Amino acid sequence: MLQGIPPEFCFILSGILFAIGAIGVVIRRNVIVIFMCIELMLNAVNLVFIAAGDSLSSMEGSVFVFFIMTVAAVEAAVGLAIFVMVFRLKDTVNADEINLLRG
Questions:
Q1: Which residues contact 94 (CB under 8 A, 6 or more apart)?
Q2: Which of 24, 53, 57, 102 satisfies CB 3.0 to 4.6 Å to 37 for a cystine?
Q3: pTM of the predicted model, to two decimals?
Q4: How would you write the pLDDT of the chain (103 residues) with one tens digit per residue?
């Protein structure tokens, strides 16, 4: 699958992508950007599973990636539906201004 690419390169790239996603979740206030950063972190984990499975000549990494992508697709559909409803209710997607638990 990853012919000619050393697994260490994939692990380093995955770490960088995961760090960018984690920093984006912590720093950004727009919930859609936060959502995209979470998706970036999931894709970084997928890259690790694929690289580890390829280096071990195993299919378990690909099976995990299949399930993670399924969960990410469902998360995207449900998350975006929630964001649309919150935007209709509060007229903003800024995480600091959205507090639905207060009356």
A1: 29, 30, 31
A2: 24
A3: 0.84
A4: 667 888 899 999 999 999 999 999 999 988 889 999 999 999 999 999 999 998 898 999 999 999 999 999 998 999 899 889 988 988 888 878 777 666 5
Partners of 30 in beta bridges? 94
- Nearest residue to 41 via CA among 13, 21, 25, 27: 21
Instruction: Count Cα atoms within 13 angstroms, Cβ side, for 18.
Output: 12
In a domain, 85, yes or no: yes
The number of residues making up the chain comes to 103
Say which CATH number the domain at 16 has.
1.10.287.3510
CB atoms near residue 66 (< 10 Å): 12
Q: Does residue 101 sit within a domain?
A: no
HSE (side-chain half, CA atoms, 13 Å) at 49: 17
